[in-house]
Amino acid sequence: MPTTPPSEAEITALVMTRLRMLGVDISVLPADDPAAPMDQRRALSACRGAMADTQAISRYVLDAQQYPPILYPAPLTEWSEVSGD
Amino acid sequence: MTEESIVDTDRRRFLTYLSAISATAVGLSAASSAPARAEQNTAPLADFPGQPGKPPTDLTELTIAGAAALIKSGKITPLDLLDAQLARIEEFESTYQAFNTVLAAEARARAKELSKARYRGALHGIPMGVKDNFYTAGVRTTANSFIFENFVPDYDATCVARLKAAGAIVVGKTQMGPLATTRATDPLGAITSVNAWTPNDISTNPGGSSTGSATAVAGRLTTSAIGTQTGGSITNPANAQNMTGLKPTLGRNSLYGVIPLTYTRDHPGPIARDAVDAAIMLQALAGADPNDPRTGGLPRVPNYLKATQVRRRGSRVAPPFPLRLGVLPGYTSGTSATAVARAAMLDTFADNGVTVVDVPLPEEWAFLTGSAITTASAAERSETFLEHLRADVRLFGVSLSSWIRALFVSGDDYVKWLRTRMSLLRKVLFELFADVDVVVQTSVTPFDLVGCPLIGFPIGFSSDASGLDVPIGGLVGGLPYGEEKLLALAATYQAATSWHARRPPDPVLAPSARRAARPRITDAEVLAASL
C-alpha cells in the first residue's frame, strides 16, 4: 500500500531525534553562518540528504541467494591458518 | 605462461579463497593443513643492483633506483641525498606546504648512521615522506584533524616500520585532506599543499587526499612517499602531479597503525617517481601482518622488481610476460588533451608488445558504481568516529557533513551496499576481465569499491589557463593480487616514453605571496569528494 511521503518538518524532527538519542549535539555550531566552516543548517541538510540519497539502494532488489556480503576471506584464512596460495 | 593462463590463475586464486570460506564454515580442521602465510618477500630489495649512472648535479632528481646504485657503490651517502632534499625543503616548503612535520634532525641522525652501516638494499638511506595518518612512534600523527591534533603514537604503523627496517629515512609527515577526504587542507578547510606543477596557482587541483605525499615527491623534497586510498587518494594525486601511484589489492599492505577512514576500502601504497620505484616500495611494504587480519591467507608476495624488467626489442620494448590491456568504450572519445593522450598511450602499448583489446562494460556498471549506491557505504565512517561526534561535532571542522550524514544510513541499506559490491566484484572478475589481464579506468570508484589494484602513471601534459604544463595521468586496474601486471604495464610504458622523467620547475614566488592566506574549500566540496 502506498505511503504518504514525510514532510520536511517530519524529516527534520526525525534527524534531531536520532541525533539526540545518539548524544550528538549540533547546537554548538552557529545556526546559519555561511562564512563558518560548518553550521547547523548545513549539518541538518546533510543528514536529510543522506536519507533521501539512500532511497535508490533501498529499492534495489538482489537475489537473496546471491552475493553474501563478504568481500575477502582473509580473516577466515588467517585465523584458521588456511593458505589461499 | 600464456595470456589466458595468467588471467585464469588470478581467477583461480580468488575462487580458491571462496572455497576456503566454505571449508572453514564446515569445519576448521578441514582447512588446517596448509599453514603457509603470505610473509614479506624483501629478498629482491637486497639483490637489486639499482640503475647505474653518474651522480646528477642535483641529487634530488634521483629515483630510488638511481640513488640505490650510487649509495650501494659508495658514490654518494644517504646523508648527501638527504641534505640535498633538506635544502630544498628549507627553500621551497613555505610555497609547497607539503609537510605537517619535518623531522630534519631525526632524519639527519638516521642518515649518518646509515651512511656507516652495512648496505641493506634498495631502500638503504632513501628519504621518505609519510602521510600524516600513519602512526609514527613519538611523532605527532594528526590526519589534519582536530580529533588527532595532539595524538603522539607510541609505535610505528606496520608500513612505516617496514620501510624503516628496509633502510628508509622518514623525512616528515605529509599534508592530507582532513581525515583523508579532500585535497590537503587544515581542519577548517584552508588549503595547504599546492600542485608542484603550478605552485603559484592554488586553484589547480593537486589531487587528494595524499596531497602532501605527491607534492613532496614531485617537488623533490623527498625521493618517495606513502599514502592511503579509499576514494582515489593515491592515484589521483599521482596523476595530478606526474607521479606513479599504486593502490594495491585490499590486504596486500597492512593497515595496522593507520587512522581508519573505512575498514573495507582503505589501502596504503606508494607514490613514486616511476614504476620501478613503486615496485621497490611495494616489495618492502607487502606481506602478512599478524596485527591486521586483512593481510592473512593471501597469495605469496611475488618479486615485483622482476615484473618491471622490460624486454628490449631493437628500438621497441615489451613487458616481461604477455599482457592483454582492455579498453573501455569511449575511452578516447572527444578532442580534449586527455583523449589525445589516452589514444597515444594505447598506440604506445600496441607498438611495444602489449595486446590492446576492446572490452564492453558489464550491465548496470554505472548504477552499481554511482552515488545512488555508494552513499550507503558512509556508515563505515560514522561507526568509527561516533565517539568523536558525541564529544564535539566541531572537531570535524569543515568535514562534518560527510560524517554526520552517515548516521542516517540504515543497517539494511549498508548490508545492501555490501551485497551490491559483491555483485560488482563478480562483474569485474568474470565479465570485465573475461579476456584481459588489466583494464584502463576512467574513474577510481569501481576498483576502490571492490578492493582491486589500480595504478596511476603519467601519460602527457596539457596547458592550464596560464600556459603552465599540467600533467595528464592514465589509470589502469588489475585483478586481485595483480600488482605485478600493473607494474609491468607501467614499466613498459615508461621504458618507451619519458613523461615520467619530467620534473616541475622550481617555484618562484615573492615572499609576500608565500605568506598570503590561502583560501578555504567549502563543506560542499568536502561532501562531493566523499560520495
Description:
The complex is a heterodimer of chains A (85) and B (531). Chain A is extended, with a radius of gyration of 21 Å. Chain A is an all-alpha fold and 85 residues long. Chain A contains 4 helices and no strands. The longest helix of chain A is centred in the first third of the chain and has 15 residues, at 8-22. In chain B, the strands form 2 sheets. An 11-stranded mixed β-sheet of chain B has the order 1-3-2-4-6-5-12-13-11-9-10, sandwiched between helices. Chain B has a two-stranded antiparallel ribbon with strand order 7-8. Chain B has 20 helices and 13 strands. In chain B, helix 11 (337-351) links the parallel strand 9 (323-327) and strand 10. In chain B, helix 4 (78-96) runs antiparallel to helix 5 and helix 9 packs antiparallel against helix 18 (483-496). Residues 1-7 and 14-36 of chain B have low confidence and may be disordered. Chain B has helices at residues 3-26, 43-47, 64-72, 78-96, 104-116, 158-165, 211-218, 235-240, 275-285, 304-307, 337-351, 365-368, 371-374, 379-391, 400-404, 411-432, 445-450, 483-496, 511-515, 523-530; strands spanning 99-102, 127-131, 169-174, 224-229, 244-247, 267-272, 311-313, 316-318, 323-327, 354-358, 438-440, 454-463, 469-478. The longest helix of chain B is centred in the first third of the chain and has 24 residues, at 3-26. The chains are: A mainly alpha (85), B alpha/beta (531). At the A-B interface, helix 1, helix 2, helix 3 and helix 4 of A face helix 1, helix 13, helix 14, helix 15 and helix 16 of B.
Note the main attributes of this structure.
heterodimer, A: 85 residues, mainly alpha, 4 helices, extended, B: 531 residues, alpha/beta, two-stranded antiparallel sheet
